[in-house]
Amino acid sequence: MLRNFLTVGSWTMLSRVLGLVRDQLLAAFLGAGPVQDAYLIALRLPNMFRRLFGEGAFNAAFVPMFTERYETKGHQSALRFAGQALSGLMLWLALLTILAEIFMPLVVSFIGSGLTGTRFETAVHLSRITFPYMLLICGAALVSGVLNGLGKFTAAAAAYVTFNIIGIAAILLGALVWHNTAVVSAWGVTLSGVVQLGALYWAARRAGMAPHLTWPSLSPDMRALLRRMGPGLVGSGVTQINLTVDTIIATHLPVGTPSILYFADRINQLPLGVLGSAAGTALLPLLTRHIANNDRAAVHSSLNRAIDYTLLLTLPAMIGMIVLASPIMAALFGYGHFTVSDAILSGQCLQAYALGLPAFVLIKVLSPAFFAEGDTVTPVRIGFFTLALNLVLNLLLYRPLGHIGPPLASTIAAFVNCTLLAVILHRRGLFIADPLLKGRALRIAGAGIMMALWVAAAEKLVAPGLPAWHGVWRLGMLTALIIFGVLVYAVMLDALKVVRLRDATVAFQSRLNRRRAR
């Protein structure tokens, strides 16, 4: 599991780093203003449906069924099932895409009700360009699920890197050649969907498991899939409705607020995407096998070690982002049209998002235990409650707290969600925190707190007013503070006997020697 965790995490990290470069270019060329707001609304639409139909309820139901069929009934049966699922998904999403293209002004007026005038017209135009990405990326997500079900994580994780590679090229071409950054970047989004689907399908074909399109039919397999995904689809729908409310609220705040929230969330998504997605992706097929074999001890061990691995990296990431929020946003985005003032406001949002980072990651770690049992109902019930809470908190907080309201509401709701998931799994006997996890979690938290104190003191002594420094010096000092924090954290982990630096060095050298010997 650790090898798969690291494989997915490594590729996801590369994708996130390239995504950061892409976002930096967007900030520099579009700033935090009306065109950026319109572009982000256009990007929000296909991503919403991607999470709903692709990476959300559909894959949560599909991957366990595909894995179980492959393990029990063999290659051909699993391949037929994948082809039927892909055909049904693509037909439904093609019809949805056609309707959305026709009625896009109505769609944008709903999701961005605060947009008026040029912002609204630009959002409609850009959304019509980006929406087909939803169809392509959902197909890619299903093929990715096939590969993950086979235990082949590398190709599926690597394919998503192309989104950011093509996105970077599109932004540069749009800004420097065609002088229309938003439009060219929107076309880059859709083109990346074509490339991702093609790359994943090619990988599945090499693995001998490329699903073929057939005329969709409501076979017993499809009815079973729909029954499994139904509750999850409702739950994901509630999630997307809640995210849509966040977007609607942001459009009613001052111009540029959707952009400020977006860039803060993108930084928060770096550790969340790498750790949460990697853990969830690697855990789902593994837990499915353990539960199918009725091996409760293996389920307990897998969940405990996954939580251990994620906390080891998540807690210092959370603490570091809270302590250095404004310098991070200024150093990464404070160029071109994105001002230092924008960076400070976005840093405040980042602090609110980062506070909930452990909860966001643990939700992705705990949820696969339900999906592996074929239970998509319980997470939905929890989701209805916590997302209703999120909605109420959004409405209560956005006026008094402005741009900080939406991320703070999401953080509170995430902690409630995570707690409920853990309690129910514990009652079912699927998750019992072992003494090793409890002890290490406390020591990891202690190491993180010591890191925060040292970094905060260092910033105050050697870099007062860091967000307003000149770009190069600001980035250099931020890098130095981060390196200093990592060193302090490593020393504290060693002092608290969480990770022995000598053992880690020996293990790394041994792994390096094995690779050289191949």
Brief summary of the model shown:
Helix content is 85%, strand content 0%. The protein has helices at 2-30, 34-54, 57-73, 75-102, 104-111, 117-130, 132-149, 154-159, 161-176, 181-206, 220-252, 257-292, 296-323, 325-333, 340-355, 357-372, 377-401, 405-428, 435-462, 471-495, 501-517.
Structure description:
- With 518 residues, this protein is mostly helical.
- The chain has a domain at 34-233.
- Helix content is 85%, strand content 0%.
- The chain contains 21 helices and no strands.
- It has helices at 2-30, 34-54, 57-73, 75-102, 104-111, 117-130, 132-149, 154-159, 161-176, 181-206, 220-252, 257-292, 296-323, 325-333, 340-355, 357-372, 377-401, 405-428, 435-462, 471-495, 501-517.
- The longest helix has 36 residues, at 257-292.
- The model has no long low-confidence stretch (mean pLDDT 83).
Can you summarize the main beta sheet? none
| Oligomeric nature of the chains | single chain
User: What's the gyration radius in Å?
Assistant: 23 Å
| Percent range for β-strand residues | under 5%
